[in-house]
């Protein structure tokens, strides 16, 4: 399906775990509820307070693999060697065709896969990297989350080092040293991309 050209490109948002991608997105959507953020599917267990269909589409591994085989995902990845994640394709195509500012928040693997598959699907991508002010600050944020075991945190920090090294692959970098400032920078990008008066 070739998307309608009256919208902007699909914004692919990536950054290491703990950098605050979700926090920046929430701040953006409070001021600009017209922005649509794709809800990913995952086979990992919900964290406390997470709601199916809001935070993620939680599904069994069998269900996920069946949807993957049917071509229902824009991209899929196994993250931290533990769980499957994927971006349902149909809602992304529908929102872009309607000219709705559309964001995917995914990991590095997923961002690379989207870049590969987007051209075949007639989707154009603007890739945005959310970076921490420093690696030490990223460690502090991850520890402060308190949602992971020591082993999981260690694995995420190793992954974060790889993700930080890939920053140059992205079209734009936004440093999240202040959530509201980072959200405003993201909105400026979106407004320019979609021809919205700020």
TrEMBL record:
Domain Guanylate kinase-like stretches = 8-191
Key words of the record: ATP-binding, Cytoplasm, Kinase, Nucleotide-binding, Transferase
Its Enzyme Commission number(s) read 2.7.4.8
Main localization (coarse): cytoplasm
One Pfam entry name: Guanylate_kin
MF (Gene Ontology): GMP kinase activity
Q: Where in the cell is it found?
A: Cytoplasm
Is Transferase one of the keywords? yes
Residues engaged in binding ATP: 15-22
Reaction it catalyzes: GMP + ATP = GDP + ADP
Major enzyme class = transferase
Which family does this protein fall into?
Belongs to the guanylate kinase family.
HAMAP family from the entry? Guanylate_kinase
Q: What role does it play?
A: Essential for recycling GMP and indirectly, cGMP.
Name of the molecule in the record: Guanylate kinase
């Amino acid at each position: 399906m070739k998307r309608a050209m009256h919208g902007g490109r699909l914004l692919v948002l990536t950054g290491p775990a703990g950098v605050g991608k979700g926090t920046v997105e929430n701040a953006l959507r409070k001021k600009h509820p017209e922005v649509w953020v794709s809800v990913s599917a995952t086979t990992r267990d919900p964290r406390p307070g997470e709601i199916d269909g809001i935070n993620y589409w939680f599904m069994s591994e069998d269900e996920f693999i069946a949807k993957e085989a049917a071509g229902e995902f824009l991209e899929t990845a196994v993250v931290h060697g533990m769980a499957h994640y994927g971006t349902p394709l149909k809602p992304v195509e529908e929102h872009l065709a309607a000219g709705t500012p559309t964001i995917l928040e995914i990991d590095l693997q997923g961002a690379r896969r989207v870049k590969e598959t987007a051209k075949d699907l007639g989707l154009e991508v603007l890739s945005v990297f959310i970076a921490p002010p420093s690696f030490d600050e990223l460690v502090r944020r991850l520890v402060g989350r308190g949602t992971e075991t020591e082993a999981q945190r260690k694995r995420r920090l190793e992954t974060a080092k790889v993700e930080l090294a890939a920053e140059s692959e992205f079209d734009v970098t936004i440093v999240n040293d202040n959530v509201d400032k980072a959200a405003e920078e993201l909105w400026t990008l979106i407004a320019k991309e979609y021809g919205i008066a700020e």
